[in-house]
Amino acid sequence: MTSGELCPSCSGERLYNLTFKHDGACPLLLPEDSTQAADHDRLLGNRSSFVREATDTERTLAAWIGMPDIDRVTIDNPLTVKVDWVGTRRRLLRVGGRPWFDPDADTSP
Ligand SMILES: [Zn+2]
Fold this sequence. Notes:
It is globular and about 30 Å long. By secondary structure, the chain is an alpha+beta fold.
């Protein structure tokens, strides 16, 4: 198990994508829960997918799991998230106009 497989704050296990099993006191739990609720509401509005700006927590987690080019994020090259639903919420990320990064597709050690 590599370090990116455990939450950088509470050491909870990474379940899939950017989703970790945070403990109740983890400072990343509340922002992640709030983002998930907001994403769920948007998906319920009959949208199969949408793109939004990444949250600070998502940026932290993307860097933690080793997303390429995460260090190139700037105002002109923002980190964006494409949210869709494939039986569960999936988040793809990209920096500026670079290709989408799927955290689940990265199986490098
Ligand atoms: Zn955590």
